[in-house]
Each structure stands twice: as structure tokens, then as C-alpha cells.
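Re: that backbone. C-alpha cells:
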């Protein structure tokens, strides 16, 4: 528990904090520890919502904060050219925009320190948004924790998000340099929601024109293949083919393909 105690001491040094909150495993762990350490009134969560987030994630984030001190900040990501055209550096410009709004909201509420849930694993993969956070002086107190450590601590402390699958911006479901629209992102959100309702919780639907490429855990392959109605329901969103990626689920698969 040494890392956890160090985290608590760090939080105490800030006295009160604002947290860029998504409802994921990392940000909820940070929020929970901060609230237990500093008290409810000294932790302010900011949820930035928009077409980039799955509706399920937005609703769960609000539910997790139901008795906390938080505000929702709507974001129009399509105002960001790099997002709209899904450029490779999209995440940098989007994160700069979002975090700037989080800082502004935090300052209006009297919070000088803005924290996020970046973990140690995030520092070793392609994360252009990380540069934006550094430029804005966002504090990442979990940067010494691996993702697994956060999950393990969460489980030990009965934090409900300990096993929540990682999620990512819906724009990551499309190849770079694809024109994004609200309709396209909404389709992905609805298709992934269909899969979640079938018990397939760790899944990504990558879009290639009229093809949906499903990335899922291998244990769920048979469940997907055997459900013809599910395939038809996905096709009903305007797709010609529904495929299953035999590599399974791969974080940042379009980042990997762009290196080839």
C-alpha cells in the first residue's frame, strides 16, 4: 500500500482538487481516493461530454458521481478541424480544447489544481493528448501506477470500476484522415451498445467504409459468430459487411496499421 499512501499524501498537499473525469477505472479510482482523503466538498469532478463519448459512458459517469460535487461541460468536437478530419494529431488538439475548458470551469469554482487519470502504461504508448496536458500543467498523480495496479487497488478497496473495460474516443474507430460526422460516431456507439447488451463488454467496432470490423476478446468469438440476428442488426445501420478480427481486441489498432 506504499504507493497508495504516497498518493494520499500528494493529494493532501493540494488540499482541494478538480479532476477531469470520465467514469473509467483510472479517473474513478483517483476521484474516490481524493474524496476519501480530502472530503466531498474539496473534490470537484468535471465531465466533458460530446459526440466523442459513448452514451453509456456518459450515463455511467453521471451515476457514479450522483452524490458528488461535479459539473458537465458540453463539448462540440466538430469545431476542432483536426478532430473533424480525424487527423493523426487529433487527440492533441481535442485534449487541448477539452482540458482548457476543464481548467476554466475549475478556476470559476475556486480550484487551482486540475488532475487527470493518466497512468504509467499511458506514458509508453502513442498518446498525442499527453503533450497537451503537459503544456496546460495538468497534474497526473497516477503516473507511477500501472493500469493493473489501479485495478488491483480498486478491487481491494471495493471500488466498483475495478474491472471496467478501458474505452476510448469514438473517433478511434475510424482510419485517420476520415471525415467524421455526428451520425458516423452515433452509429458506432449504437452498434457497440448492441454488443454490450449481448454480454460482449470489451469490444471495438472499427469502420472501413461499408465494413464493420469487430474486435473482441476470443472468448466472445462464438457468441458473435452464432448470432445471425446480431449481424443483421448491425448491417441495418447501413453496412454491407460485418467481419470479426481474428487478432482479437487491440488498443490503438489504427495507430499500428499506420506504421506499416
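Recovered sequence:
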Amino acid at each position: 500500500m506504499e504507493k497508495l499512501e504516497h498518493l494520499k499524501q500528494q493529494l493532501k498537499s493540494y488540499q482541494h482538487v478538480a479532476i477531469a473525469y470520465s467514469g473509467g477505472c483510472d479517473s474513478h479510482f483517483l476521484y474516490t481516493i481524493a474524496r476519501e482523503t480530502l472530503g466531498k466538498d474539496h473534490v470537484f469532478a468535471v465531465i466533458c461530454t460530446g459526440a466523442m463519448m459513448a452514451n453509456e459512458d456518459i450515463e455511467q459517469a453521471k451515476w457514479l458521481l450522483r452524490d458528488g460535487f461535479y459539473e458537465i461541460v458540453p463539448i462540440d468536437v466538430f469545431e476542432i478541424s483536426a478532430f473533424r478530419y480525424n487527423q493523426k494529431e487529433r487527440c492533441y488538439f481535442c485534449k487541448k480544447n477539452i482540458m482548457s475548458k476543464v481548467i476554466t470551469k475549475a478556476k470559476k469554482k475556486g480550484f487551482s489544481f486540475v488532475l487527470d487519470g493518466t497512468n504509467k502504461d499511458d506514458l509508453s504508448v502513442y498518446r498525442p493528448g499527453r503533450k497537451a496536458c503537459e503544456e496546460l500543467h495538468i497534474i497526473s498523480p497516477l503516473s507511477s501506477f500501472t493500469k493493473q495496479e489501479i485495478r488491483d487497488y480498486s478491487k481491494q478497496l471495493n471500488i466498483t470500476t475495478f474491472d471496467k473495460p478501458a474505452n476510448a474516443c469514438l473517433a478511434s474507430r475510424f482510419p485517420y484522415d476520415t471525415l467524421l460526422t455526428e451520425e458516423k460516431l452515433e452509429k458506432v456507439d449504437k452498434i457497440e451498445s448492441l454488443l454490450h447488451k449481448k454480454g460482449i463488454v470489451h469490444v471495438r467496432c472499427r469502420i472501413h467504409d461499408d465494413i464493420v470490423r469487430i474486435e473482441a476478446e476470443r472468448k466472445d468469438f462464438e457468441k458473435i459468430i452464432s448470432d445471425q440476428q446480431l449481424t443483421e442488426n448491425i448491417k441495418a445501420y447501413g453496412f454491407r459487411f460485418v467481419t470479426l478480427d481474428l487478432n482479437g481486441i487491440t488498443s490503438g489498432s489504427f495507430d499500428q496499421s499506420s506504421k506499416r
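The CA atoms of residues 216 and 248 lie 5 Å apart. Strands lie at 17-20, 43-49, 70-74, 114-115, 203-208, 211-216, 241-244.
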